[in-house]
């Protein structure tokens, strides 16, 4: 389905929980978050119902996010039921990787095709500092297993912050040289906890210039990344630049939060609450279709901070 600006909206990101088993310094408060009551969160069957109706309106790709999606009870079932929707041809997940090693086989069997693993450092002590409570060995095991069992592609999402992990850029580049991994360097966005690190912003152009020896690859029209290869590298290097290179004009996404609201744009304050219409499919279809059609033209992060009423861990990026 096309929105009023003519963009084909075919990608739904589903935040299945705002809970996480890490406390990354740029994402979640150190003390954690207010625990939601069970009836505040969409049930598994509600999520599937919304995905099915979204598929009727042209959604073809679904990505499960969080918080951390693997802490959601029944995530395997949600993925399996999604895989049975004939219109959906791509099921992906963004995860911090802490629980992925143990769950990878089950997830793949359920229908998960590919994973993005968030990893901001390759150093054990720094990982503990950034995540506050994490063990990087679990993530390394998850990456190795994801490659071994055939998730394709396996991407590494790295938020770059000056003074925190910018000294490891070449270590990540070498990782993509040696393994068939697709490393994505992401500009930090001024939303939620990340506002505290706005002075640590580094542009993608700076990174591209500092790395050198990169050959740009052709990507699809809806790609949010500029992608490059290095000579003889097994993987690729990408740069996601929401501030310096807005991709709004080609944005094909809408987002469903765990609380049952649709966010047509990551950074807008507008949300459409679908929870009141879960038992009325006529109204549910109407408001979902309306949310897609009236997706905002663009964000204005280059002018001001995000207008989102939610933190990043509540949206899933």
UniProtKB/TrEMBL annotation:
Stored InterPro entries: Aldolase_TIM, Elp3/MiaA/NifB-like_rSAM, MoaA, MoaA-like, MoaA_NifB_PqqE_Fe-S-bd_CS, MoaA_twitch, MoCo_biosynth_MoaA/MoaC, rSAM
Pathway the protein acts in: Cofactor biosynthesis; molybdopterin biosynthesis
UniProt key word Transferase: no
EC number: 4.1.99.22
PROSITE patterns reported for this sequence: MOAA_NIFB_PQQE, RADICAL_SAM
Radical SAM core domain residues: 4-222
Keywords assigned: 4Fe-4S, GTP-binding, Iron, Iron-sulfur, Lyase, Metal-binding, Molybdenum cofactor biosynthesis, Nucleotide-binding, S-adenosyl-L-methionine
Residues the record lists as binding GTP: 13, 63, 94, 155, 253-255
A GO term, aspect molecular function: cyclic pyranopterin monophosphate synthase activity
Subunit description: Monomer and homodimer.
Function: Catalyzes the cyclization of GTP to (8S)-3',8-cyclo-7,8-dihydroguanosine 5'-triphosphate.
UniProt family annotation: Belongs to the radical SAM superfamily. MoaA family.
This protein's name: GTP 3',8-cyclase
Source organism per UniProt: Caloramator fervidus
Name of the encoding gene: moaA
